[in-house]
Amino acid sequence: MKLLQIFRSALSRSFWVIIAAAFVLLCGIMMFWLNHEPDLFDPLERSALHAGQHGHTAATGYTTTATLIEAVNVLLNKRGGYLANDIMPPWVFLDNIPNWEFGVLTQVRDLARAMRNDFSRSQTQSTEDIDLATADSLFHYDSTRWFPPDTEGRLRKASTALEAYLTKLSSPQQPEAQFFARADNLTDWLAIVEKRLGSLSQRLSASVGQVRLNTDLSGDADARQSTPTTNEVTVKTSWMEIDDVFYESRGTAWALVLFLRAMEIDFDDVLRKKNALVSFRQIIREL
C-alpha cells in the first residue's frame, strides 16, 4: 500500500512537471511567433483603397492622413495586436515588439501634433481643427495602460477622430477642414524628426560607451544653462537597454518611411519647386 502511494505521488509530480514544461514550451513558441515586425505598405495604394471604401475624393493631404490612420491600424491589428500593455504570459515577457510599437507611436504622436498645429492651419491665429485636437490628445496617452480606459481604446478613438477629419478634408462642402502643403509646415515637422533621429542615433552609438567633450553651449558666446556641467561627459547605453533602443529605432524608421512616402505625394509641387525631391527620396532610402 505504501509503495502504491509513493508511485501515485511520483506520477502526480511528473504530471505537474509535464504541464509546466508544456506551458514553457507553448510560451516559447508564442513568443517566437509574436516577435514579428509588420511589412511596409504602399501609402498611395492604401490611400486610394481607403478613398474607394469610404467614397472619398482625394485632396491635398489625403495620402498623409490616410497613411497615419493606417499606421495606427497596423499597431492595433498586427500579429498579436498591441502588445505594450499586456500583463499576461507570454506577452508580458516580450520587449522587442513593444519597443518597436513605441517607436511607431512616437512618430504617430509627432505627426498628429504637427497636423493639429501646422498642416491644418493657415496661420498662427487660425482656429485648430476639433477632430485633430481630439486625436492629438488621445494619442498622448499612457502607452502601457491595460486597465480601462486602456491604450487600445484610446488609439481607436483617435483613429476615429482622424477619419472624421479625413471625411471633411475630402468634401468640397466643408472648406473649414484644410491641409496646407507648404514648405514651412514641412520644415517644422522635419525639424522634430531630426531631433528624434538624433537622440536615437546617440543612444545607439553609445552602446560601447564614449567620453565626449561637452558641446551643449557651443556656437553661442552668450548661451547659458540652468545647472553647471563638466567639460567631459560619459555617454553609455546599458547593454540591458541597447536592444530596446534598436527596436525603437526600427519602429521609428518604419513609420517615417511611410509618412515621408505619403508626403512625397502631397508635397510633390513644393519639393519640385525647391529642387528637394531627390534629397527627400534619399532620406527615405537611408531609413
List the helices and strands and how they pair.
Elements: H1 2-34, H2 43-54, H3 62-77, H4 96-119, H5 130-139, H6 151-169, H7 183-205, E1 210-213, E2 232-235, H8 242-266, H9 268-273, H10 277-286
Antiparallel strand pairs: 1-2
Helix pairs in contact: 2-3, 3-4, 3-6, 3-8, 4-5, 4-7, 4-8, 5-6, 7-8, 8-10
Explained architecture:
The protein is mainly alpha-helical. The chain has one domain. It has helices spanning 2-34, 43-54, 62-77, 96-119, 130-139, 151-169, 183-205, 242-266, 268-273, 277-286; strands spanning 210-213, 232-235. A two-stranded antiparallel ribbon has the order 1-2. Helix 7 packs antiparallel against helix 8 and helix 8 packs antiparallel against helix 10 (277-286). The mean pLDDT is 87.
Question: In short, what is this structure?
Answer:
Helix content is 62%, strand content 3%. It has 287 residues and is mostly helical.
Spatial ordering of strands, largest sheet: 1-2
User: How much of the residues is beta strand, in percent?
Assistant: under 5%
Radius of gyration: 24 Å
How many domains would you count in the coordinates? 1
Counted by DSSP, the helix tally is 10
The helix/strand series, from N terminus to C terminus, equals HHHHHHHEEHHH
**Major sheet size, sense and barrel closure:** 2 strands, antiparallel
Structural class: mainly alpha
Query: What's the total count of β strands?
Result: 2
Mean of residue pLDDT?
87
Low-confidence stretches are none
How far apart lie the N and C ends? 72 Å
